[in-house]
Amino acid sequence: MIQACPSYMDAGAIEGVLATIDCQTQAYAQGGYLALTGGSSLFGAALTLLMTIYVALIGWRLLFAPEGARLSEAPGVALRIGAILALVTNWSVFQTLVFDLADRAPVQIAAAVSSPWTSGEGAPSLAASPVAGLDQAHSELRRAAAAFGGQAPPNVKAYASAEAASAEALSLAADALMVMSVGVVGGAKLAIGVLTAVGPVFIALALMNVTRGVFFGWVRALVGSALSLLVGWSLLILLLVVLAPWLATLAEQREAQALEPRMATSLAALLLVFAVGQGVLIVAAWVAALGLRTGGLAPTFAAPSPGQVARRETPAAPQLASRADQLAQALTQDSQRFESRVREVSLAGAAVRTAPAQAPGPRPQDTIGASYRRSVALRRIGGA
After folding, report:
1. What is the rounded distance in angstroms from the CA atom of residue 188 to the CA atom of residue 191?
2. Separation in Å, CA 119 to CA 111, 222, 306
3. CA–CA separation, 373 vs 384, rounded Å?
4. Rounded mean pLDDT of 189-203?
5. CB-based burial of residue 165 (10 Å sphere; 0-12 exposed, 13-18 middle, 19+ buried)?
6. Residue 68 and residue 371: Cα distance in Å, rounded?
7. Per-residue model confidence as pLDDT tens digits over 30-79
Protein backbone atom coordinates (compact mmCIF):
# COMPACT_ATOMS: atom_id res chain seq x y z
CA MET A 1 0.00 0.00 0.00
CA ILE A 2 1.29 3.44 -0.93
CA GLN A 3 1.70 5.77 2.05
CA ALA A 4 0.73 9.43 1.76
CA CYS A 5 3.52 11.97 2.12
CA PRO A 6 3.33 14.38 5.06
CA SER A 7 3.41 18.13 4.70
CA TYR A 8 6.78 19.86 5.00
CA MET A 9 5.53 23.44 4.89
CA ASP A 10 6.92 24.20 8.35
CA ALA A 11 10.45 23.17 7.35
CA GLY A 12 12.99 25.46 5.74
CA ALA A 13 13.04 26.34 2.07
CA ILE A 14 15.63 23.78 0.94
CA GLU A 15 14.86 21.15 3.55
CA GLY A 16 11.12 21.21 2.85
CA VAL A 17 11.52 21.02 -0.93
CA LEU A 18 14.03 18.19 -0.83
CA ALA A 19 11.96 16.19 1.66
CA THR A 20 8.84 16.66 -0.45
CA ILE A 21 10.62 15.59 -3.64
CA ASP A 22 12.15 12.55 -1.96
CA CYS A 23 8.83 11.31 -0.58
CA GLN A 24 6.77 12.06 -3.67
CA THR A 25 9.35 10.45 -5.96
CA GLN A 26 9.24 7.16 -4.11
CA ALA A 27 5.43 7.24 -3.98
CA TYR A 28 5.20 7.99 -7.70
CA ALA A 29 7.67 5.25 -8.63
CA GLN A 30 5.85 2.65 -6.55
CA GLY A 31 2.41 3.74 -7.72
CA GLY A 32 3.43 3.79 -11.38
CA TYR A 33 5.03 0.37 -11.10
CA LEU A 34 1.99 -1.21 -9.44
CA ALA A 35 -0.42 0.40 -11.89
CA LEU A 36 1.66 -0.73 -14.87
CA THR A 37 2.21 -4.31 -13.75
CA GLY A 38 -1.32 -4.95 -12.41
CA GLY A 39 -3.01 -8.15 -13.47
CA SER A 40 -5.66 -6.39 -15.57
CA SER A 41 -3.33 -3.92 -17.26
CA LEU A 42 -2.40 -3.82 -20.92
CA PHE A 43 1.23 -4.34 -19.99
CA GLY A 44 0.49 -7.80 -18.59
CA ALA A 45 -1.10 -8.92 -21.85
CA ALA A 46 1.76 -7.45 -23.88
CA LEU A 47 4.33 -9.18 -21.66
CA THR A 48 2.54 -12.52 -22.05
CA LEU A 49 2.45 -12.12 -25.82
CA LEU A 50 6.13 -11.18 -25.90
CA MET A 51 7.08 -14.23 -23.83
CA THR A 52 5.02 -16.48 -26.09
CA ILE A 53 6.70 -15.16 -29.23
CA TYR A 54 10.13 -15.50 -27.64
CA VAL A 55 9.57 -19.13 -26.62
CA ALA A 56 8.05 -19.94 -30.03
CA LEU A 57 11.10 -18.54 -31.79
CA ILE A 58 13.39 -20.64 -29.62
CA GLY A 59 11.34 -23.76 -30.41
CA TRP A 60 11.42 -23.01 -34.12
CA ARG A 61 15.21 -22.67 -34.01
CA LEU A 62 15.52 -25.98 -32.17
CA LEU A 63 13.30 -27.88 -34.60
CA PHE A 64 13.71 -26.36 -38.04
CA ALA A 65 16.68 -24.04 -38.21
CA PRO A 66 19.70 -25.86 -39.75
CA GLU A 67 22.07 -24.09 -37.40
CA GLY A 68 19.69 -22.95 -34.68
CA ALA A 69 19.75 -22.95 -30.90
CA ARG A 70 21.37 -25.72 -28.91
CA LEU A 71 20.28 -27.31 -25.68
CA SER A 72 23.32 -25.83 -23.95
CA GLU A 73 21.74 -22.37 -24.36
CA ALA A 74 18.67 -23.36 -22.34
CA PRO A 75 20.04 -22.33 -18.90
CA GLY A 76 20.85 -18.83 -20.16
CA VAL A 77 17.43 -18.43 -21.73
CA ALA A 78 15.71 -19.63 -18.56
CA LEU A 79 17.81 -17.26 -16.43
CA ARG A 80 16.91 -14.31 -18.65
CA ILE A 81 13.21 -15.06 -18.56
CA GLY A 82 13.27 -15.60 -14.80
CA ALA A 83 15.13 -12.34 -14.14
CA ILE A 84 12.71 -10.35 -16.29
CA LEU A 85 9.65 -11.89 -14.67
CA ALA A 86 11.06 -11.28 -11.17
CA LEU A 87 11.71 -7.60 -11.92
CA VAL A 88 8.38 -6.85 -13.61
CA THR A 89 6.09 -8.76 -11.24
CA ASN A 90 7.50 -8.06 -7.76
CA TRP A 91 7.85 -4.51 -6.43
CA SER A 92 10.07 -5.56 -3.51
CA VAL A 93 12.65 -7.07 -5.85
CA PHE A 94 12.40 -4.13 -8.24
CA GLN A 95 12.72 -1.60 -5.41
CA THR A 96 15.82 -3.29 -4.01
CA LEU A 97 17.64 -3.87 -7.30
CA VAL A 98 16.58 -0.77 -9.25
CA PHE A 99 15.04 2.06 -7.21
CA ASP A 100 17.16 1.81 -4.07
CA LEU A 101 20.30 1.24 -6.14
CA ALA A 102 19.69 4.39 -8.18
CA ASP A 103 18.10 6.67 -5.55
CA ARG A 104 19.45 5.59 -2.17
CA ALA A 105 22.90 4.21 -2.98
CA PRO A 106 24.39 7.50 -4.36
CA VAL A 107 23.43 9.40 -1.20
CA GLN A 108 24.85 6.67 1.02
CA ILE A 109 28.09 6.53 -0.99
CA ALA A 110 28.45 10.31 -0.76
CA ALA A 111 27.84 10.13 2.99
CA ALA A 112 30.48 7.41 3.37
CA VAL A 113 33.03 9.39 1.36
CA SER A 114 32.33 12.53 3.39
CA SER A 115 32.18 10.77 6.76
CA PRO A 116 35.38 12.45 8.10
CA TRP A 117 33.59 15.81 7.80
CA THR A 118 30.04 14.73 8.69
CA SER A 119 30.68 12.67 11.84
CA GLY A 120 32.84 12.96 14.91
CA GLU A 121 33.41 15.64 17.49
CA GLY A 122 35.28 18.00 15.16
CA ALA A 123 32.70 17.89 12.38
CA PRO A 124 31.47 21.30 11.19
CA SER A 125 27.97 22.18 12.30
CA LEU A 126 26.66 22.57 8.73
CA ALA A 127 28.11 19.34 7.29
CA ALA A 128 26.98 17.20 10.24
CA SER A 129 23.41 17.36 8.88
CA PRO A 130 23.71 18.30 5.20
CA VAL A 131 20.04 19.06 4.48
CA ALA A 132 19.63 21.23 7.57
CA GLY A 133 23.05 22.79 6.89
CA LEU A 134 21.99 23.81 3.37
CA ASP A 135 18.87 25.40 4.78
CA GLN A 136 20.88 27.30 7.40
CA ALA A 137 23.39 28.50 4.83
CA HIS A 138 20.62 29.72 2.54
CA SER A 139 18.89 31.55 5.38
CA GLU A 140 22.12 33.22 6.52
CA LEU A 141 22.90 34.41 3.00
CA ARG A 142 19.41 35.92 2.73
CA ARG A 143 19.67 37.66 6.09
CA ALA A 144 23.10 39.05 5.28
CA ALA A 145 21.87 40.31 1.89
CA ALA A 146 18.96 42.05 3.61
CA ALA A 147 21.36 43.62 6.16
CA PHE A 148 23.60 44.99 3.39
CA GLY A 149 20.55 46.26 1.57
CA GLY A 150 19.44 48.13 4.70
CA GLN A 151 22.81 49.87 4.92
CA ALA A 152 22.80 50.94 1.27
CA PRO A 153 21.28 54.29 0.30
CA PRO A 154 17.78 54.09 -1.18
CA ASN A 155 17.41 53.69 -4.96
CA VAL A 156 21.15 53.31 -5.51
CA LYS A 157 22.76 51.15 -8.17
CA ALA A 158 25.16 48.33 -7.32
CA TYR A 159 28.07 50.03 -9.06
CA ALA A 160 27.56 53.20 -6.97
CA SER A 161 27.50 51.59 -3.53
CA ALA A 162 29.57 48.80 -2.02
CA GLU A 163 26.70 47.83 0.29
CA ALA A 164 24.27 47.53 -2.62
CA ALA A 165 26.76 45.47 -4.63
CA SER A 166 27.30 43.16 -1.63
CA ALA A 167 23.56 42.74 -1.19
CA GLU A 168 23.12 41.72 -4.84
CA ALA A 169 26.15 39.38 -4.67
CA LEU A 170 24.83 37.57 -1.60
CA SER A 171 21.35 37.36 -3.09
CA LEU A 172 22.83 35.79 -6.24
CA ALA A 173 24.83 33.36 -4.08
CA ALA A 174 21.67 32.32 -2.21
CA ASP A 175 19.91 31.65 -5.53
CA ALA A 176 22.92 29.63 -6.75
CA LEU A 177 22.82 27.54 -3.57
CA MET A 178 19.13 26.89 -4.12
CA VAL A 179 19.79 25.72 -7.69
CA MET A 180 22.74 23.54 -6.64
CA SER A 181 20.71 21.77 -3.98
CA VAL A 182 17.07 21.75 -5.01
CA GLY A 183 17.73 22.01 -8.76
CA VAL A 184 20.45 19.37 -9.14
CA VAL A 185 19.61 16.93 -6.35
CA GLY A 186 15.86 17.29 -6.72
CA GLY A 187 16.05 17.07 -10.51
CA ALA A 188 18.13 13.89 -10.36
CA LYS A 189 15.68 12.31 -7.92
CA LEU A 190 12.71 13.21 -10.11
CA ALA A 191 14.42 11.68 -13.15
CA ILE A 192 15.12 8.49 -11.20
CA GLY A 193 11.51 8.32 -10.04
CA VAL A 194 10.08 8.63 -13.54
CA LEU A 195 12.57 6.18 -15.05
CA THR A 196 11.84 3.58 -12.39
CA ALA A 197 8.07 4.04 -12.73
CA VAL A 198 8.24 3.09 -16.42
CA GLY A 199 11.09 0.63 -15.87
CA PRO A 200 9.07 -2.58 -16.42
CA VAL A 201 8.44 -1.58 -20.05
CA PHE A 202 12.16 -1.26 -20.79
CA ILE A 203 13.05 -4.38 -18.82
CA ALA A 204 10.60 -6.39 -20.90
CA LEU A 205 12.25 -5.06 -24.07
CA ALA A 206 15.52 -6.67 -22.96
CA LEU A 207 14.07 -10.04 -23.96
CA MET A 208 14.56 -9.60 -27.72
CA ASN A 209 17.83 -8.77 -29.46
CA VAL A 210 16.03 -6.31 -31.73
CA THR A 211 14.69 -4.18 -28.85
CA ARG A 212 17.55 -4.68 -26.40
CA GLY A 213 19.16 -1.42 -27.46
CA VAL A 214 16.19 0.50 -26.01
CA PHE A 215 16.71 -1.31 -22.71
CA PHE A 216 20.39 -0.36 -22.59
CA GLY A 217 19.46 3.26 -23.36
CA TRP A 218 17.17 3.22 -20.33
CA VAL A 219 19.98 1.77 -18.21
CA ARG A 220 22.35 4.54 -19.33
CA ALA A 221 19.77 7.21 -18.49
CA LEU A 222 19.26 5.70 -15.04
CA VAL A 223 23.01 5.45 -14.43
CA GLY A 224 23.48 9.05 -15.58
CA SER A 225 20.84 10.29 -13.14
CA ALA A 226 22.35 8.27 -10.30
CA LEU A 227 25.86 9.54 -11.01
CA SER A 228 24.56 13.12 -11.17
CA LEU A 229 22.98 12.64 -7.75
CA LEU A 230 26.23 11.17 -6.40
CA VAL A 231 28.58 13.93 -7.59
CA GLY A 232 26.06 16.68 -6.85
CA TRP A 233 25.47 15.58 -3.27
CA SER A 234 29.18 14.98 -2.63
CA LEU A 235 30.04 18.49 -3.80
CA LEU A 236 27.31 20.00 -1.64
CA ILE A 237 28.78 18.37 1.47
CA LEU A 238 32.21 19.72 0.53
CA LEU A 239 30.64 23.15 0.01
CA LEU A 240 29.15 23.08 3.49
CA VAL A 241 32.55 22.20 4.97
CA VAL A 242 34.15 25.14 3.16
CA LEU A 243 31.32 27.61 3.90
CA ALA A 244 31.05 26.89 7.64
CA PRO A 245 33.73 29.34 8.84
CA TRP A 246 32.77 31.99 6.28
CA LEU A 247 29.11 31.93 7.30
CA ALA A 248 30.04 32.00 10.98
CA THR A 249 32.14 35.15 10.43
CA LEU A 250 29.39 36.70 8.32
CA ALA A 251 26.83 36.02 11.06
CA GLU A 252 29.08 37.64 13.68
CA GLN A 253 29.53 40.73 11.52
CA ARG A 254 25.80 40.96 10.91
CA GLU A 255 24.97 40.73 14.62
CA ALA A 256 27.63 43.31 15.43
CA GLN A 257 26.40 45.52 12.57
CA ALA A 258 29.93 45.64 11.19
CA LEU A 259 29.44 44.06 7.78
CA GLU A 260 32.36 44.16 5.36
CA PRO A 261 31.55 44.31 1.64
CA ARG A 262 34.81 42.55 0.78
CA MET A 263 33.77 39.57 2.91
CA ALA A 264 30.42 39.32 1.16
CA THR A 265 31.95 39.55 -2.32
CA SER A 266 34.51 36.83 -1.58
CA LEU A 267 31.84 34.54 -0.14
CA ALA A 268 29.59 35.00 -3.19
CA ALA A 269 32.50 34.33 -5.57
CA LEU A 270 33.41 31.16 -3.67
CA LEU A 271 29.89 29.83 -3.93
CA LEU A 272 29.65 30.60 -7.64
CA VAL A 273 32.91 28.70 -8.25
CA PHE A 274 31.38 25.65 -6.59
CA ALA A 275 28.30 26.03 -8.78
CA VAL A 276 30.46 25.93 -11.92
CA GLY A 277 32.34 22.91 -10.57
CA GLN A 278 29.09 21.09 -9.94
CA GLY A 279 28.02 21.71 -13.54
CA VAL A 280 31.31 20.27 -14.81
CA LEU A 281 30.91 17.20 -12.60
CA ILE A 282 27.39 16.57 -13.88
CA VAL A 283 28.58 16.74 -17.48
CA ALA A 284 31.37 14.29 -16.63
CA ALA A 285 28.86 11.95 -14.95
CA TRP A 286 26.68 11.86 -18.07
CA VAL A 287 29.70 11.30 -20.30
CA ALA A 288 30.64 8.33 -18.13
CA ALA A 289 27.08 6.98 -18.22
CA LEU A 290 26.76 7.32 -22.00
CA GLY A 291 30.10 5.58 -22.39
CA LEU A 292 28.80 2.52 -20.56
CA ARG A 293 29.56 -0.55 -22.68
CA THR A 294 27.41 -3.64 -22.73
CA GLY A 295 30.13 -6.06 -23.82
CA GLY A 296 28.76 -9.34 -25.08
CA LEU A 297 25.19 -8.23 -24.33
CA ALA A 298 25.24 -5.59 -27.05
CA PRO A 299 22.08 -5.64 -29.14
CA THR A 300 22.20 -7.19 -32.57
CA PHE A 301 19.43 -7.69 -35.10
CA ALA A 302 20.48 -11.26 -35.80
CA ALA A 303 22.84 -12.95 -33.42
CA PRO A 304 25.18 -15.40 -35.19
CA SER A 305 24.50 -19.02 -34.53
CA PRO A 306 27.26 -21.43 -33.47
CA GLY A 307 27.35 -22.88 -36.98
CA GLN A 308 27.91 -19.45 -38.50
CA VAL A 309 30.71 -18.75 -36.04
CA ALA A 310 32.31 -22.10 -36.90
CA ARG A 311 32.12 -21.33 -40.61
CA ARG A 312 33.82 -17.95 -40.03
CA GLU A 313 36.60 -19.53 -37.99
CA THR A 314 37.20 -22.50 -40.36
CA PRO A 315 39.40 -21.64 -43.38
CA ALA A 316 37.69 -22.04 -46.71
CA ALA A 317 38.66 -25.09 -48.82
CA PRO A 318 40.43 -24.39 -52.13
CA GLN A 319 38.07 -24.43 -55.13
CA LEU A 320 38.84 -25.32 -58.77
CA ALA A 321 39.09 -22.34 -61.07
CA SER A 322 36.44 -21.99 -63.74
CA ARG A 323 37.12 -21.74 -67.48
CA ALA A 324 36.81 -17.95 -67.39
CA ASP A 325 39.27 -17.73 -64.48
CA GLN A 326 41.75 -19.94 -66.32
CA LEU A 327 41.48 -17.76 -69.45
CA ALA A 328 42.01 -14.61 -67.36
CA GLN A 329 45.08 -16.13 -65.72
CA ALA A 330 46.53 -17.12 -69.14
CA LEU A 331 46.02 -13.61 -70.50
CA THR A 332 47.70 -12.15 -67.44
CA GLN A 333 50.70 -14.44 -67.86
CA ASP A 334 51.01 -13.55 -71.59
CA SER A 335 50.88 -9.86 -70.73
CA GLN A 336 53.60 -10.31 -68.13
CA ARG A 337 55.83 -12.21 -70.59
CA PHE A 338 55.33 -9.51 -73.25
CA GLU A 339 56.25 -6.77 -70.80
CA SER A 340 59.35 -8.74 -69.77
CA ARG A 341 60.43 -9.12 -73.43
CA VAL A 342 59.92 -5.40 -74.06
CA ARG A 343 62.11 -4.58 -71.09
CA GLU A 344 64.87 -6.89 -72.39
CA VAL A 345 64.81 -5.27 -75.84
CA SER A 346 64.89 -1.83 -74.30
CA LEU A 347 67.92 -2.74 -72.20
CA ALA A 348 69.74 -4.18 -75.23
CA GLY A 349 69.11 -1.02 -77.25
CA ALA A 350 70.36 1.12 -74.43
CA ALA A 351 73.56 -0.97 -74.25
CA VAL A 352 74.17 -0.53 -77.99
CA ARG A 353 73.70 3.20 -77.77
CA THR A 354 76.18 3.51 -74.94
CA ALA A 355 78.96 1.46 -76.72
CA PRO A 356 82.14 3.52 -77.82
CA ALA A 357 82.02 4.70 -81.44
CA GLN A 358 84.96 4.05 -83.90
CA ALA A 359 87.04 6.86 -85.46
CA PRO A 360 85.67 8.23 -88.74
CA GLY A 361 87.30 7.32 -92.09
CA PRO A 362 87.58 4.23 -94.22
CA ARG A 363 88.72 1.02 -92.68
CA PRO A 364 91.85 -0.72 -94.11
CA GLN A 365 89.87 -3.57 -95.56
CA ASP A 366 87.49 -1.17 -97.35
CA THR A 367 90.15 0.72 -99.44
CA ILE A 368 90.53 0.25 -103.19
CA GLY A 369 92.85 -2.65 -104.12
CA ALA A 370 92.77 -4.22 -100.68
CA SER A 371 91.05 -7.35 -101.93
CA TYR A 372 93.56 -7.66 -104.84
CA ARG A 373 96.56 -7.34 -102.56
CA ARG A 374 95.18 -10.01 -100.28
CA SER A 375 94.68 -12.42 -103.20
CA VAL A 376 98.23 -11.79 -104.56
CA ALA A 377 99.74 -12.36 -101.19
CA LEU A 378 97.86 -15.60 -100.86
CA ARG A 379 99.08 -16.82 -104.30
CA ARG A 380 102.67 -16.06 -103.37
CA ILE A 381 102.39 -18.04 -100.22
CA GLY A 382 100.87 -20.92 -102.13
CA GLY A 383 103.61 -20.87 -104.83
CA ALA A 384 106.29 -20.91 -102.23
Report:
1. 5
2. 10, 30, 57
3. 17
4. 93
5. buried
6. 99
7. 999 988 887 667 888 888 898 888 888 888 877 776 565 566 777 888 88
